[in-house]
């Protein structure tokens, strides 16, 4: 298509002076002069209260719980046990057991390299709530290992005989 258009244009019109396209060049501008005028810093206590109030709403739905869980996962810290308890109760109010297990898996993942220190503390804090709501931990459900995990490949076929 462009070849056809160019073939119909005389050759003398295709030569342009060097400075004729200055209006098409990008103008440089500095981003260093932009100032941040307002940045709200929320304290940890205020954040905990906000999430607990959010999860304690009676009209909360599945999407809102997942949205709040994603926000918690994007934070730089592991959620407080009070927030985890409120999220678990909200998910059980909606009778969404899978969501409760995903929440616990997300908290485990947020523990990162300190999982051996942080996860037992969180479990000790939320254990009574887990028992009250009838929720098993991911380890009790076998989600801490891959689905087809076995001790060794040498005994793989012996397990099924």
From TrEMBL:
Protein's membrane topology: Peripheral membrane protein
Gene Ontology CC annotation, any one: respiratory chain complex IV
Xref: Pfam families: COX5A
GO molecular function, one term: metal ion binding
Protein's pathway: Energy metabolism; oxidative phosphorylation
Gene Ontology biological process terms in this record: mitochondrial electron transport, cytochrome c to oxygen
Gene3D superfamilies: Cytochrome c oxidase, subunit Va/VI
Localization annotation: Mitochondrion inner membrane
Domain of life: Eukaryota
Predominant location: mitochondrion
Alphabetic keyword roster: Heme, Iron, Membrane, Metal-binding, Mitochondrion, Mitochondrion inner membrane, Transit peptide
Biological role: Component of the cytochrome c oxidase, the last enzyme in the mitochondrial electron transport chain which drives oxidative phosphorylation. The respiratory chain contains 3 multisubunit complexes succinate dehydrogenase (complex II, CII), ubiquinol-cytochrome c oxidoreductase (cytochrome b-c1 complex, complex III, CIII) and cytochrome c oxidase (complex IV, CIV), that cooperate to transfer electrons derived from NADH and succinate to molecular oxygen, creating an electrochemical gradient over the inner membrane that drives transmembrane transport and the ATP synthase.
Assembly behavior: Component of the cytochrome c oxidase (complex IV, CIV), a multisubunit enzyme composed of a catalytic core of 3 subunits and several supernumerary subunits. The complex exists as a monomer or a dimer and forms supercomplexes (SCs) in the inner mitochondrial membrane with ubiquinol-cytochrome c oxidoreductase (cytochrome b-c1 complex, complex III, CIII).
Family: Belongs to the cytochrome c oxidase subunit 5A family.
Full protein name: Cytochrome c oxidase subunit 5A, mitochondrial
Top-level taxonomy: Eukaryota, Metazoa, Ecdysozoa, Arthropoda, Hexapoda
């Amino acid at each position: 298509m462009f070849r056809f258009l160019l073939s119909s244009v005389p050759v003398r019109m295709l030569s342009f002076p060097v400075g004729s396209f200055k209006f098409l060049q990008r103008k440089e501008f500095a981003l260093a002069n932009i100032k941040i005028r307002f940045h709200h810093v929320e304290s940890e206590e205020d954040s905990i209260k906000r999430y607990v109030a959010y999860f304690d709403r009676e009209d909360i739905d599945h999407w809102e719980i997942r949205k709040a869980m994603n926000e918690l996962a994007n934070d730089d810290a592991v959620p407080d046990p009070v927030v985890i308890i409120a999220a678990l109760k909200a998910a059980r109010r909606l009778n969404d057991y899978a969501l409760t297990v995903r929440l616990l898996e997300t908290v485990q993942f947020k523990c990162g390299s300190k999982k051996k220190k942080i996860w037992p503390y969180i479990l000790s804090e939320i254990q009574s709530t887990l028992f009250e709501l009838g929720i098993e931990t991911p380890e009790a459900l076998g989600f801490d290992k891959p689905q087809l995990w076995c001790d060794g490949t040498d005994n793989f076929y012996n397990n099924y005989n």
